[in-house]
Specification:
Layout (H helix, E strand, L loop, with lengths): L1 H53 L8 E17 L4 E16 L5 E3 L2 E7 L2 E8 L2 E3 L3 E10 L2 H5 L4 H7 L1 E16 L3 E16 L4 E2 L3 E7 L1
Antiparallel strand pairs: 1-2, 2-7, 3-6, 3-8, 4-5, 4-8, 8-9, 9-10, 9-11
Length: 215
């Protein structure tokens, strides 16, 4: 009797140890499956973010365009006796910045310049701001001509005699495009326009503009 009871106890203990081993193996397999599943989901999310970053949310070049330039004030006179030229002028520049990205574009403080034969003769600040996705922001700027810098150029008097004043406007916008809060891409957009001011009738001739952007 005692031998049989010992056998039954041993069998029960073996069955219990076997069942606990099987249940432990099942738990380990379940944990492995959960880990593999989580890793698969994580890899899928990473791949999806990378695909979106380089397709739908791929950084595009914002475009800065000078839409029009007009004279708002021109006072011009020549004193032949004293060989003096008096000139006061202001230019109204209509500028627009287009953001073709699917995310916002933040740009820093910048400026628009007025140049005469390579020399800066006017400047107006462009304050920092943000442009939403697929938005075009218009800007109206007024550039005042620095007459003393104009007159100091040796070719100024010959241009005045011909009645035509060649000028150039230049605007440069620098900022960042934030893609999915993961990638910050630096963007620079600039515009340069050449035009001629006709002193006889205070008008502006055709503009020749060049646009440049880089990431």
């Amino acid at each position: 009797m005692e031998v049989e009871s010992l056998r039954s106890k041993n069998e029960k203990s073996m069955e219990q140890s076997g069942s606990s081993a099987v249940s432990g193996l099942k738990r380990r397999r379940k944990c492995k499956n959960i880990c593999f599943g989580m890793m698969g989901v994580l890899i899928f999310i990473i791949i999806l973010i990378v695909i979106l970053a380089f397709t739908v949310f791929k950084a595009k070049r914002p475009v800065t365009t000078i839409d029009s330039v007009s004279l708002s004030n021109l006072r011009f006179s020549v004193n032949l006796a004293r060989l003096q030229v008096l000139l006061n002028a202001s230019l109204d520049v209509d500028l627009s910045i287009k953001n073709p990205n699917k995310v916002g574009f933040k740009y820093t403080d910048s400026s628009a310049q007025l140049n005469y034969r390579g020399q800066q003769v006017g400047e107006v600040p462009i304050p920092a701001g943000k442009i939403s996705a697929d938005e075009t922001v218009p800007m109206n700027l007024t550039l005042t001509v620095m007459a003393d810098r104009l007159i100091s150029d040796s070719k100024f008097f010959s241009d005045v005699s011909s009645g035509e004043l060649p000028l150039n406007t230049f605007a440069k916008i620098s900022g960042k495009v934030n893609v999915l809060n993961l990638f910050k891409i630096h963007v620079v957009s600039s515009t340069s326009c050449d035009f001629t001011v006709f002193l006889s009738n205070s008008s502006i001739g055709d503009q020749d503009c060049k646009y440049k952007t880089k990431l």
